[in-house]
Amino acid sequence: MRNLSNKNIIHIEKDGISYIQFRKLLEYDYIAHGYTVGLDNNMRTTTSKGKNVNYENGMHKFHLLCNYLGIDFNDCYKASLNHTDNVCVVDTRDNLPMFEVLPDKNDGILTNISNINLITTSSDCITFFLFDKEKNVIANVHSGWRGTYNGILINALKKMHEYFGCNYRDIMIFICPAIRDCHFEVNFDVFDLFSQKYGYMGNIITKNEDKWNIDTILINKILASDLGIREDNIYDSQLCTVCNSDVINSLRAHGKDFNLNAGIIGIKGKTKCLKKN
Ligand SMILES: [Zn+2]
Q: Which of 22, 75, 80, 163 is the most buried (most CB within 10 A)?
């Protein structure tokens, strides 16, 4: 497979699965993380149609990923992924279903507990990993255009601040592969929504004949910056899923039978950082 490594990410190929990791996040050996790439890696394990021929394959891939990341498959929890702007805190392992979607509709999950590995899946939508090494808090946020329009990243950052006392200056943001302004072309209705809400930002929309291209990554970067996130704490994979659809699953590029990529982040157990103050 074509190697996707760049200054911010490293592309790992293992037997049966491949994924990218952020070089910066690898500096913290108690953090497990990865974002799957490869067209033969379909991380779909649920379906709205009740029947999923990919279920076993998806579960097999998740087992492989967990093995390579050194985490327990039974300690994985998925966001429910409904294109909401809801974020939820996982502050106990009690009564959580193993490898099931979390109760209630949410697209962002946060925790400061070790061995609770947070999963989102996507195909063009943005996956953000958030990490505050001072307060030892992680988040996994799924943000399609609706999530970006409604500000789910900001909701997650605010929750880290309000619930865990994180200082915005300490929070790092990692931007996984997603559809970029080069390919995120929309009709008037979506353009109009973004124009009215974020038009003040200036350079987020490009007109292209009777369509518009919107830079949802830039919108999120500006919103985060306005909240107090440091620019040098934002680590961007710089990968467009459509531009790289020969090696990354993409809804726009591959159509209705699209496969899913998965992002996972967790705090490994038994580190000094996990003690309560
Ligand atoms: Zn592109």
A: 22
